[in-house]
Design a protein that fits this description.
By secondary structure, the chain is an alpha/beta fold.
Length: 619
């Protein structure tokens, strides 16, 4: 019989906690009464009661590595006890990962998933992890990358992580199983890949295809479908006195299994830590505030003195990085955030100026050097609360909830998650929750981003106009849908005229708001340039900082390119012809949402029936 050494060690380590001390006493009684051969069921109950208490105590001062190691080991002990019991009806997880021309990101996310499985052991292992399946939904264009992605999935299968490569051929077979009429009616959900191509359909269309695929794959065990972006990892980030640290500290699958078992819910969403989940198109204003503060501090510093930029990182609200936080009900962040130097060892202020300058270009890939997010502990199950926003890179559906596709997917708008979230909130209420199980968001690999739609690099500049346009009309769609929901949508039919009136009013409001933010950015850019170009600044006379000076000026040029008088993104959203075309397509999508849902649900039933029939034939 298994002896729970790690659990016993943790109970002893936190014996000063009254609740944990009681668990230790229960452990002693359990083993004494059973002569050190306790019933597996009773032992499982003890683990399940003890581990949340230990987690809370562990985070009271931040976990050290020894305690964290014992905590992870205790979960592996629990898995062995469950295996001894012989019955395991916990959820099986399908981890669905859309990817487009990002093989290094795919490698990293699967590596972190495999590490999560090995670290906590959820579901047990018999040559493969029994209850975890990675589904890679490939939307890549480059043939060599497609081949590489398939090889990556196969390589992880050999290491024990079951994987399904859902590439273009499998997607075509799925679409060919639909009638031509069904494909036409589902354009808003699945796009038109036979016309536009099977690559770069967009993350929303790819997720929806994966939902349809998953409906026929769940098997006999209860299943949950976790959607994860390829630039994420199953880790969290915390700030230590010596710098940031990324930790495999959360048992995601165990917590999600508990959440969906103990609560009557259909959809759960987590968030991300690390890099912000939003576009650089809505972060430029606050980053310029921080750049100005950094330059002011550097101008006052002695260049040859030891670096003084190692103070603890600042923490802010949920949207400290967002220029438009006020639109979403968050408190705006007025003050500047200080930059925390990432260099180690002895170095001076010329070194940190070089280091900061080297990070400026990565802002356009979505990194925010001064405003990233750390993990803060709360019990993921006990504190799960009704939600209104889906983070499309970290959300979970039950089999029944696969009917909640990403709406208006073929429009390729940003803010698809918040729009879906408002619809879920109106329909599901408390069955749609947010839980504190964030994933680590890493925008770049080896200091450079892989493929990112809407961000074009070429001819010496970074062009955000595509992403900016998708952001603007995504905001218009989100707030239009929110106002329509208040009028009874989608359950109550609304006239085309009413939908048009609401959308045009929202769009006018967004135009004014975006114009104001653009003026703020231009003013801050002028201030930043003036501060940097001041001839009294010590960095102008140093040859070793020539590269840093070039990077700062290149950064300023890119900000002007995207937010200055000639910015193509702003020209797009101001173009009467383009606006009319976009708004008409959005109105049609809103009008068709009800019929889309009905057809989608009938397809899911058909897929499930076919799966059930195959299972019966197999037995």
């Amino acid at each position: 019989m298994h002896t729970p050494r790690a659990l016993r060690t943790l109970l002893d380590q936190f014996v000063s906690d009254p609740a944990i001390r009681e668990m230790g006493e229960r452990w002693q009684r359990l083993h004494a009464e059973a002569e050190d051969r306790p019933d597996p069921g009773a032992l499982i109950t003890l683990y399940e009661a003890s581990l949340p208490l230990i987690e809370r105590a562990m985070w009271s001062d931040g976990p050290d590595h020894e305690i964290l190691g014992n905590y992870q080991h205790a979960f592996r002990e629990l898995e062995r006890v469950i295996e001894q019991r012989g019955v395991d009806r916990r959820h099986r997880f399908f981890v669905i990962i859309p990817v487009a021309d990002r093989p290094r990101h795919l490698q990293n996310v699967l590596e972190s998933l495999l590490s999560q499985c090995r670290t906590f052991g959820y579901g047990g292992f018999d040559g493969r992890f029994r209850k975890i399946v990675a589904v890679v939904a490939d939307d890549s264009e480059d043939v060599s990358i497609i081949d590489r992605n398939r090889e990556i999935v196969e390589a992880f299968a050999h290491r024990g992580l079951e994987g399904i490569y859902f590439g273009a051929d499998a997607q075509k077979r799925l679409l060919n199983a639909l009638s031509a009429q069904e494909r036409t009616r589902l354009v808003s959900i699945l796009g038109e890949p036979f016309r536009t191509g099977m690559h770069h359909k967009g993350a929303s269309v790819t997720r929806n295809l994966a939902c349809l695929f998953a409906a026929g794959r769940s098997g006999p065990d209860p299943a949950l479908f976790l959607f994860v972006d390829s630039d994420e990892q199953f880790r969290i980030r915390v700030t230590r006195p010596g710098g940031d640290e990324e930790l495999p500290a959360l048992n995601y699958f165990h917590a999600l299994d508990r959440l969906f078992t103990e609560r009557d819910i259909q959809v759960a969403t987590g968030k991300v830590v690390g890099d912000p989940p939003v576009s650089p198109a809505v972060m430029a204003g606050n980053f310029l505030v921080d750049v100005i503060a950094f330059l002011n501090a550097m101008a006052a510093a002695d260049p040859d003195r030891s670096c003084g930029f190692h103070a603890a990182a600042q923490t802010g609200g949920d949207a400290a990085y967002h220029d438009m936080a006020g639109l979403f009900g968050f408190q705006g962040e007025e003050g500047a955030y200080s930059y925390r130097c990432a260099l180690e060892g002895v170095h001076d202020h010329t070194a940190i100026l070089n280091e900061f300058a080297g990070r400026l270009d990565r802002f356009f890939d979505g990194e925010h050097p001064t405003r990233s997010t750390d993990y803060g502990y709360s019990d993921a199950v006990a504190t799960a609360a009704p939600a209104r926003t889906v983070y499309t890179g970290n959300y979970v559906l039950t089999s029944e909830a696969l009917k909640y596709f990403i709406p208006f997917a073929d429009l390729k708008l940003r803010m698809a998650g918040p729009t879906l979230g408002r619809l879920l909130q109106s329909e599901l209420g408390d069955q749609f929750v947010a839980t504190n199980l964030p994933l680590l968001h890493t925008r770049t690999v080896d200091e450079q981003s892989e493929f990112r739609p809407g961000v074009e690099r070429g001819q010496g500049c970074v062009d955000l106009s595509g992403e900016f346009e998708r952001q603007f009309f995504g905001d218009v769609m989100l707030f239009t849908v929110s106002e329509l929901i208040a009028l009874g949508y989608p359950g109550t039919p609304l006239s085309d005229r009413k939908v048009g009136e609401v959308m045009e009013s929202v769009e006018e409001r967004m135009q004014r708001f975006y114009a104001g933010k653009r003026l703020d950015i231009q003013a801050r850019l002028a201030e930043a340039r003036a501060r940097f170009d001041d001839p009294a600044n010590w960095w102008h006379g140093r040859s070793e900082l020539a590269g840093a000076r070039r990077r700062f000026r290149h950064f300023f040029e890119n900000i002007e390119h995207n937010f200055g008088p000639g910015a193509q993104g702003h020209a797009l959203i101001a173009s009467g012809k383009h606006r009319r075309r976009r708004l008409e397509a959005m109105k049609r999508a809103i009008a068709g949402y009800g019929s889309d849902r009905a057809l989608w649900e009938s397809l899911l039933r058909r897929r499930r029936f076919a799966e059930h029939h195959r299972a019966e034939v197999a037995t």
